[in-house]
Amino acid sequence: MDDPRYDPRLTPARGDLAAKYLEGKVKAERFVTGEEFEVTLPVVPVREQPTAAAMQMTEALRGERVTVYDRNGEGWAWGQLAGDGYVGWLPDAALSKPDAAPTHKVSALRTFAFPGPSIKLPPSDTLVLGSKLAISREDGSFAVTRDGQFLPRSHLAALDHREPDFVAVAERFVGTPYLWGGKSSLGIDCSGLVQVALIAAGIGCPRDSDMQQAGLGRALEPHERSSLQRGDLIFWKGHVAIVRDAGTMVHANAHHMATVIEPIEPAVARIRQAGSEVVAIRRL
After folding, report:
1. Buried b (16+ CB within 10 A) or exposed e, 243-266
2. Contact 106, 133 (CB under 8 A)
C-alpha cells in the first residue's frame, strides 16, 4: 500500500490483504473483517515484521484489545491495536479471545500478581501501569481476577479513573531504562512516556512523536516560548520532552539511556549540538 493519505503505522493494509473497512479506499488482493483478541501477557512487542529480530515499533499491554487480520502460521499475528490504532505483528501466543470486559487498570508503576491471597507467595506475573484487568471479587487487601490472580487492591483503579496531573505520572518513570518502542516502566521511549502519562490522565494520545506534534494541543507562537508552563511539550525531529516548570523537563532519551529530569536550556543546547533544533512547542 503506497497511498500517501494513509499512514502505514495506522492502516491495516498490505498489497495482499487489508481490513474490510478500508475496501474502496486502498488497493489489496483481498479484504478481511478481522477478529478481536485480547493481550494476555504483561508486555508484548509489536514488531515491523513477523520475526523476533525485527524492530519493535511499540508495545501492547495486558488487557489491550487487538483486531487480528492475518496469521502467518509461524507464531505471529498481524493486527491493529484498539487503543491507539497501531498496526504490526504480535506473538500469537500472547493473544486469546476476550473473556470479559476489563473493570480495572493498574495504577501503580509496576505491581505483582500472586497465585493466592498472600504477598509471600511467588508472583505469577509483573504487570505495569495501564494494564487492564477484569476483577471478579475482592479478598481482603487483594483484588481477584477472573482467572484467579490476586493483585494488591491499592495498585489498581477503576477503568474511568483519571490522574490529575499527567506530568506527575511521567515523573514517576524517572530512572526507567530507555527502550525503543517501549511503553512501560520496564523500558520506555520518549513518545511512549508522553502517551502513557496522558492516557493515565484520561487524555487521548497517539503513539509516535510526529503524530503527537500534529495532533496534541496548539503550537506556541515564538513570543510565547519564553514563558513555558508545566505540561507543555517540546518537539524535535523524532523526539519529545515534557515541561515540568519554566526551567526543567522530563523525557526518556537515548543520550542518558533513561528517563531523566534535566534543565531545559542545557538539554536544548546539547540536542542542537547533535544536529537537531526544536521544531515546535505545543500546549495542551
Report:
1. bbeeebbbbbbeeeebbbebebee
2. yes
Q: What is the pLDDT of residues 99-134, one digit of tens each?
A: 899 999 999 999 999 999 999 999 999 999 999 999
| Three-state SS letters, 110-148 | EEEEECCCCCCCCCCEEEECCCEECEEEEECCEEEECCC
Condensed to tens digits (0 to 9), the pLDDT of residues 207-237 reads 999 999 999 999 999 999 989 999 999 999 9
Amino acid at 52: A
The residues, any chain, with a CB within 8 Å of residue 242's CB and separated by 6 or more, are 166, 167, 170, 193, 194, 197, 231, 232, 233, 234, 249, 250, 251
Q: Is 129 within 8 Å of 184 (Cβ atoms)? A: yes
